[in-house]
Amino acid sequence: MSFPFDSVLIANRGEIACRIIRTLRRLGLRSIAVYSEADRDAQHVRLADLALPIGGPRPQDSYLRIEAILDAARTGDAGAVHPGYGFLSENPAFAEAVAAAGLVFVGPTAASMRRMGSKAGAKRLMAAHGVPVVPGYTGEEQDPSLLAREAARIGYPLMIKAAHGGGGKGMRIVHAAQQFDEALASCRREAQGAFGNARVLLERYIEQPRHIEFQIIGDAHGHLVHLNERECSVQRRYQKVLEETPSPFLTPALRARMGAAAVAVGRALDYRNAGTVEFIVAPDGAFYFMELNARLQVEHAVTEMTLGLDLVELQLRIAGGEPLPDALLAATPAQHGHAIEARLYAEDPAQGFLPGSGRLEHLRLPVPSPHVRVDAGVIEGDTASIHYDPMIAKIIAWDRDRDRALARMREALADCHVRGPKSNVAFLERLIAHPALREARIDTGYLDRAPGEFLPAQDAAEGCAAIAAAVAILLAQEWTARGDRSPWARCDGWRLQDAEARELVLQAGARRVSVLATGRDGDYRLQMDGCAHHVEGARRDADALSLRLDGRALRLPVHDMETAIEVHIDGQRHAFERSAARLATTQADADAGTLHAPMPGRVVLVQAQPGVAVDTESVLVVMEAMKMELALRAPRAGIVAAVQVAAGEFVEADAVLVRLD
Q1: Checking CA distances to 555, which of 154, 158, 265, 424 falls within 20 to 30 Å?
Q2: Annotated active-site positions, please?
Q3: Half-sphere exposure of 96 (CA within 13 A, CB side)
Q4: What is the pTM of this model?
Q5: Given pLDDT bands bounded at 50, 70 and 90, which one contains residue 586?
Q6: In the CATH hierarchy, which fold is given to the domain comprising 460-579?
């Protein structure tokens, strides 16, 4: 069957837009991209057959403007619109507007979206159909005093959730009544900014739960099936970090019950196209309906890798009127192997996972293979924008079983190198190697309860890595100098009388490492932290350094990135910045009395007032950046001397916001 449309507009950006464009190209369909002012040079713009501008850099000025997207569809002569995920993908008004314009919407009907677009309405609907739901409050009355009373009735701990939206935005866990008001206000602001609706719901917080979701897909001919589950329990602040299928937690019996419940949810809605039924699962196996995401999910790739499907192609064929393939209707498809997805983000785990932005000066990602898939929306030289989610790429690893898939993921992450904004790649490597992950013991709150277990700690391996980095730099310097045979070009500290030690300075986070080196051509004596080390026979190939260090023969993966270098030891990454040997002494601007903006963003709330005393960790300013709300706290107790910012202002990174006496 041929498609009733020959061109599709993608109402999205980033890696999902690129992924949809590639499927369209394979199917012989024309792709039309839309882009904001910030995305004029983005990869989805360069990949599409046609790309059209739709407004300013902020989502509300571009990707959330229904009329601008429809104008682009008319200009580009599109026959269909694919919403991707995020932005307008679960907006029933958008689906209706697309249909009213005579275009095919590649997604569920507006009626299904309206019934499921509100988490509150969805919970009431599911309860009415006998699907288990978590106890809570889903009413439309949103007076703060009533919500506080409902919270007391439900009991603590409880969760405040944005009633419209997803992706972990607008969610807060509240452990005590005295935390409720502040958490409610923050949750509402974030929900309003992310989804344009500040309504919230309350629900009991299930301790140490699992997050397991089922992919469903239905057609216009009355067929609806599930395509197995994905476990998304590895989360940080409700943001998924790793996803995998099959779930290592489910038994065959529990999988069957949950799959049947997911299909029942879809049938109750007369659901069409791709969707995801999400469940929260207690340690004893009791499961509760959480929400239905009426769209494609970020983690859909693991389902595709284990089933050999292209879910975007299925979406397009269903939107074009085709029934589901007979192979999917005959029985629940059998999974082949195990797949794991890791989300590579521009963020700094050492600074509370602060989102990053800026030019990707160096970006190397794994080479795709039958075992590794890479979904990326950026390449080296592109910019991670402050206006959107800071994802760099999704890394998906597959193999015959979970242990082998984890090994593939470990190898794939070792091939990831990012310079420019900070990235979470080293955090992901430590996570993959952690016993709790390997033994499938991680629940949705584990990473937040024990963040230190996944952050780097100075140890003997770091010292070895610093020596290896210094040796790699020495070898590179000597190689460069070989073109000039004069003694003045030598890099070994040569003098007329004798050799002098060369000083190499490496920066490892906040730690400054000084290495004094004598020797040449792979044989060196290195002094670091008061200890002498002997290196013999050091040689460098494309990806690794081999050497004998204090009598031990080692081969260590090493990757150069201009002024930075990374060394892997025992599967752990150690990154070093090359620094000048002599630095001018300056007073640190980040003294205990100055509050700076940690990144570019918009100020949404200023609580500091001149002349008012504040305690350590008091919230002084709240910023919004990368679709997240950041509470900036007082570095110490004191009197506010000056407030240098107002709500609504856009500030650059490192801008001084508040000064304390």
Answers
A1: 424
A2: 295
A3: 8
A4: 0.81
A5: very low
A6: Glycoprotein, Type 4 Pilin (3.30.700)
